[in-house]
Structures are given as structure tokens and as C-alpha cells.
Write a structure and sequence with these properties.
Blueprint lengths: L4 H26 L14 H8 L5 H10 L4 E6 L7 H10 L1 H15 L1 E9 L2 E7 L4 E5 L7 E10 L4 E8 L2 E8 L18 E7 L7 E5 L11 H20 L5 E4 L14 H4 L15 E4 L6 H18 L3 H4 L8 H38 L8 E5 L7 H9 L6 H8 L4 H35 L1
Antiparallel strand pairs: 1-12, 2-3, 2-9, 4-5, 5-6, 6-7, 7-8, 10-11
Helix pairs in contact: 3-5, 6-8
Length: 451
């Protein structure tokens, strides 16, 4: 039995509310606003400000280590040997170079990223959607088929919350007021309830054009290692506390000292023993001055580094990205870490690539007025491995039996659009070279005729 639009709205808003706290926690680790180290509850505001200095944004580094290697080169349709020109116009119009990076970062960091494909005044519009605002429901028998999708957002200018329910061939629009009866702004802790249907629009497509990018096992890259991240922040907090407490050494007097002067007034020794560059203190016989010693922070620093190494190993992130001063890492260990990162990036590309195929298929369908996505779309990627110029030149010289275009994309790492420009320049250079080789013979013939 098919669900009604209202039943879909209730189902999807409930699921979105369940996921939003988790997304908020994971995004906090990516934006440098991770939970404060233990002991923040009930502390004074001044100490909480001090605690914020203990947070290190390793979550963003772990995500960017993979996202930086996920760069789309172009799209190939059907049996074409080159990237598709229509797809390239869609990419350029929608600035998918930067939007795809945002989608990948959401997919890697929050476990899910979303894109939406719609018809615009100039053709297909592809947008990056935040997982805090969008959710989809897929067919359990065919996980690549989206049954329904929902986008919820707040528009303070219009004074309403809006919900767009996407079903095959139609979009239902809902709204609810942003202000209560007293004119106060209503918080948005929940997306459930209070919606009023304000309209529906046909999409002329037989599919739901919201596409989820799901990470491996439905988890963020560092989601299972948040305890390690919290431990690192706690270690840093202890080091900061010890450093602050020992900024000034504590001093004490050992021995019998008078508490009152000859006139019976209380003696303030703290004002008498004020430290200074030219200060000279005279102590009575038998009295000694004691001064506290600083605590050695080496053990705490070593513990923090060990935690960072554990985090790097668990997330398959090169130590050089988390600790730039790890110069004592062996060459073999560094190469192994890079290899692990490459394998992880290739796995994430395989997961995202199939979704980008569907996204571009939908965009091409809208561009060409079709009601079904265009099939046989292949996403082209810039090589994951980053080789030096010498390594690429050596590989290219040894791969002369590979077609020139493949050498440019697979070995040199140029994008499909760059290769097209290079191919045009290459043809122009060949034409100029042919013209120059004929000029001496023509010049000689002219000279003979003049004679």
C-alpha cells in the first residue's frame, strides 16, 4: 500500500530529526567547535573560555586528506572516447568543481551528502544540499532508486519554514509560520508537525532527483574515533592547566617569622618580598626561602603524540598531515601511510562515482527534455595518486603505446577540459610545423622565378 504525501512527510521529518543531533556533533568536530573537554559542566565562563583553547581540529584534517584526492575530471556518455560537451556545460554552469568538494566533505565527515537536480531557466540546476536539511528514502530492493526525498529550510525574510516533499513526478510544498502569536521567533528544534500544504508542482520526470552520497558503513571517517579526539583534547587541556598554574613559581618562607611589628601591626610579607630585577631580600637568621619547581611536561607531550599516532593509524591518515614535524618517520612507513590513504580514497571514489553518474544522467535528461535519466554516464576522476613531475615524465615516456589522451589524463593528471585545450593547441602546432617545413621550397621557387 502506497503512502500518502502526508504520511511521507511525517516519516521523513521524523527520520531527519533523529539524524540531526548526530550530524551536529560530527560537524562540530570538522568546524573546530568540538565538545569541551571533561569538566566543563558547572564551570565558570572564564574557565570554559580557557577550555576552548584545548580543542584541535583534527576531524577536518582527516576528512580533507581524502576529499582533496576526490576531484572530478569530467563525464563520459555512452561509447564516447572523450568527455561529453553537454555535461561539461552543466558542470561549468553549476560550478560543480567546488560544489562536488562540499558534497564529498559532507559524505566523508557526516556520513551523508546530498545533491538535488532541478530544471532551471537555462537548463539543469545541480545544487549541494546539507544533510541537516535533506533526507531520502530508497527502495530496499533497489538501493539506487530513491522513493521519496525531503528538503526543509527556514526563510526568515519570508517568515516561514518550508518543506519540499519530492515524489516521482511531483513536488509537494509545505510551510509553517516562523513567528508565534506574540510575534516571537520560534526555534526549530524539530521538523515534525505544524505543516500546511500550500501547493504541488509536476516535475515532468518519473524519478526523484535528490541523490544521497553515503559513506562506508553509513559512518563518518572519524565517527568511531571521537573518543580518541576527545582524549587528545583532554591531554592538551591538562598541559595548558599545568602551564598556566606554573607561569609564576610559588614561594614560601621556612622558619620562625614575626607576625607583628614593634607597634603591633600585622606584617604583610607578600608586599615586602615583591620580585623584581633589582630586588634584594634580607632574611632573618635561620629562615630559608622555598621556591616551587616546574613539572616536566615531556610525558604529557609524549602521550598526546602517541594518541595522534593512534588516530592516524586508525583513520589511515598520513602522520605528516596531523603532525608536520614528524620528520623522524621512516620512508617505508610514510609510503605505507600514503598507500593506505590511496586505497581509502579509491574506495570512496567508487562509492561517490556511481551517484555522480546518476546525478549527471538526471541533469542530461532535464537538459534534453526526457522523463527518464540518461544511462551509460561515466564519471571521470583525476588520478588519486599525486606523483612528482619526474615520476610522471618517466611513466609517460615508458607508456608510448597508450593513446596520447589517456597519457594526459591517467599519467599527467590533467582534467578532460584541459586535455581538450591541449589537443587543439597540439593540432595548431602541427599545422604551423607543416607550414614552416614547406616555406624554404616555396621561397626557392619564387627566387628562381624572379631570376
Amino acid at each position: 500500500m502506497a503512502l500518502t504525501p502526508e504520511q511521507w512527510l511525517d516519516r521523513l521529518t521524523r527520520r531527519l530529526d533523529d539524524e540531526r543531533p548526530r550530524y551536529a556533533l560530527l560537524r562540530s568536530f570538522m568546524t573546530g567547535n568540538a565538545p569541551l573537554p571533561e569538566g566543563a559542566d558547572g564551570c565558570r565562563e572564564a574557565y570554559q573560555k580557557f577550555q576552548r583553547k584545548a580543542r584541535t581540529n583534527f576531524g577536518e584534517l582527516i576528512v580533507d586528506a581524502v576529499a582533496d584526492r576526490m576531484s572530478i575530471s569530467g563525464f563520459r556518455v555512452g561509447g564516447q572516447t572523450q568527455d561529453d560537451d553537454i555535461a561539461r556545460r552543466i558542470v561549468r554552469r553549476n560550478r560543480l568543481g567546488s560544489k562536488s568538494n562540499d558534497v564529498h566533505r559532507d559524505m566523508l565527515g557526516l556520513s551523508a551528502g546530498y545533491t538535488m537536480v532541478q530544471a532551471g531557466p537555462k537548463g539543469a540546476i545541480v545544487t549541494h544540499e546539507r544533510p541537516e536539511q535533506v533526507i531520502t528514502e530508497t527502495d530496499p530492493l533497489f538501493p539506487t532508486v530513491v522513493r521519496a526525498g525531503l528538503k526543509v529550510y527556514r526563510d526568515q525574510v519570508l517568515g516561514h519554514d518550508f518543506a519540499f516533499l519530492h515524489l516521482p513526478g511531483v513536488v509537494f510544498r509545505y510551510s509553517r509560520p516562523l513567528f508565534d502569536e506574540r510575534g516571537d521567533l520560534v526555534d526549530m528544534p524539530s521538523t515534525q508537525g505544524g505543516w500546511t500544504l500550500v501547493g504541488e508542482e509536476p516535475t515532468m520526470q518519473s524519478f526523484v532527483s535528490i541523490y544521497p552520497f553515503e559513506n562506508r558503513d553509513g559512518l563518518g571517517e572519524f565517527e568511531t574515533y571521537t573518543d580518541v579526539l576527545n582524549r587528545i583534547n583532554w591531554d592538551v587541556l591538562q598541559r595548558l592547566v599545568l602551564t598556566a598554574m606554573q607561569a609564576y613559581r610559588q614561594r614560601a618562607l621556612k622558619g620562625e617569622m614575626a607576625t607583628e611589628d614593634a607597634e603591633g601591626n600585622q606584617i604583610d610579607y607578600s608586599s615586602m618580598f615583591t620580585p623584581g630585577a633589582g630586588a634584594l631580600w634580607q632574611l632573618p637568621a635561620g629562615v630559608e626561602l622555598w621556591e616551587s619547581q616546574t613539572t616536566d611536561l615531556t610525558s604529557i607531550l609524549s602521550a598526546t603524540k602517541e594518541d595522534i599516532r593512534e588516530l592516524a593509524a586508525a583513520t589511515r591518515t598520513p602522520m605528516s598531515m596531523l603532525m608536520p614535524d614528524s620528520a623522524n618517520q621512516s620512508a617505508e612507513g610514510a609510503a605505507s601511510a600514503r598507500e593506505a590513504l590511496v586505497f581509502k580514497a579509491q574506495d570512496r571514489i567508487a562509492r561517490a562515482g556511481s551517484v555522480w553518474d546518476a546525478v549527471m544522467g538526471a541533469a542530461l535528461a532535464i537538459e534534453q527534455g526526457l522523463d527518464q535519466p540518461v544511462e551509460d554516464v561515466e564519471t571521470l576522476w583525476i588520478p588519486v595518486e599525486r606523483r612528482t613531475l619526474q615520476e610522471r615524465a618517466d611513466a609517460a615516456s615508458k607508456a608510448q603505446d597508450i593513446p596520447w589522451r589517456n597519457r594526459m589524463t591517467d599519467i599527467w593528471g590533467y582534467s578532460a577540459e584541459q586535455v581538450d585545450a591541449m589537443e587543439a593547441n597540439r593540432a595548431s602546432d602541427a599545422l604551423n610545423a607543416a607550414m614552416f617545413t614547406q616555406m624554404p621550397a616555396n621561397s626557392k621557387a619564387v627566387a628562381d622565378g624572379d631570376a
